[in-house]
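STRUCTURE:
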């Protein structure tokens, strides 16, 4: 049950993060893409040991591919904020 709560919370917060940074940076990211990227990455981030690292790589790849955003600062801001969100969610899910 903790993993389900962690996944749903991580996906919701990651979606909000992706949308907010896209809005701040001035590029468009369709809602469907936001939900797919956040869902995939949040699910992978829950895997033990390497999941968080793989989710960060996938997030960077998908954001660059779907938006054409610049690596700095747009993609890096998304990675940092979503990384912090996943750390908090994973900590809560593993307790």
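SEQUENCE:
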């Amino acid at each position: 049950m903790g993993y389900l709560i962690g996944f749903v919370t991580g996906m919701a917060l990651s979606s909000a993060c992706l949308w907010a940074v896209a809005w701040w940076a001035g590029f468009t990211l369709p809602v469907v893409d936001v939900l797919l990227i956040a869902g995939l990455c949040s699910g992978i981030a829950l895997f033990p040991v390497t999941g968080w690292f793989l989710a960060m790589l996938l997030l960077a790849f998908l954001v660059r591919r779907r938006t054409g955003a610049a690596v700095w600062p747009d993609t890096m801001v998304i990675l940092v904020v979503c990384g912090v969100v996943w750390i908090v969610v994973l900590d809560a899910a593993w307790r």
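REMARK: Residues 24 and 78 are 11 Å apart (CA to CA).
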